[in-house]
Design brief:
single chain, alpha+beta, five-stranded mixed β-sheet, 4 helices, 5 strands, rod-shaped
């Protein structure tokens, strides 16, 4: 038994197969096209977001670079000002230490007394006063000179050691005697003297 297909039947079958394939393709396109459109829209949005993020990142990096440069300049200026302030403070401290002296007086200037001078210092008090003004008397930041009025050098040394004992950390320099000019004595004039004599004696002021 032989099956014979006419040419017309082949054409009909071919057209039917083509229509079926076209229907399948159209159905697939109907299902897939929305997803394709959505993918295209998402890609465009993602591309825009990437461009925006890239631009924002570039601007942020540029701003950070400018801030870093400005910060470096400010730090350099702050360091320069601090160095200048430190040098100024050191200069002022040196000038103050050289120009300022604290004078201590021992004894009383009486008839027959001699004047002796000695320098005294206290290392621990000086170091503490440089670090904190409240920790020690600030007078020890400067030079300290002691004037001693005594009848003789031995008595002057005794007074000096008693006032500034080495056991308490005081360091006493070499003591020297100072020649003090004698004050002129004015004799009072007699009661019967003339007014001119009383004026010369100091009464007619």
């Amino acid at each position: 038994m032989y099956l014979q297909i006419a040419d017309s039947d082949v054409v009909v079958l071919s057209l039917a197969a083509a229509c079926l394939a076209a229907a399948i393709v159209m159905e697939l396109l109907r299902i897939v096209l929305p997803d394709i459109y959505e993918w295209i829209a998402d890609y465009a949005a993602i591309k825009v977001e990437i461009t925006r993020t890239r631009n924002l990142t570039v601007r942020t990096l540029e701003g950070n670079r400018r801030q870093a440069v400005l910060r470096e300049r400010r730090n350099a200026e702050r360091f320069r000002l601090k160095s200048k302030l430190s040098r100024t403070e050191m200069t002022l401290a040196a000038l103050e230490s050289d120009r300022v002296e604290v004078l201590h007086e021992l004894g009383e200037a009486a008839l027959g007394s001699q004047l002796f001078i000695a320098r005294v210092s206290h290392r621990r008090f000086a170091d503490a006063s440089h670090k904190d003004f409240d920790s020690a008397p600030c007078i020890w930041r400067y030079g300290n000179v002691v004037r001693i009025w005594a009848s003789q050098e031995r008595a002057a040394r005794s007074m000096l050691q008693s006032a500034f004992p080495a056991a308490k950390g005081y360091s006493v320099g070499e003591m020297t005697q100072v020649q003090v000019a004698a004050k002129p004595m004015v004799r009072p004039a007699a009661a019967s003297s003339a007014p001119e004599a009383r004026a010369e004696a100091g009464y007619g002021r």
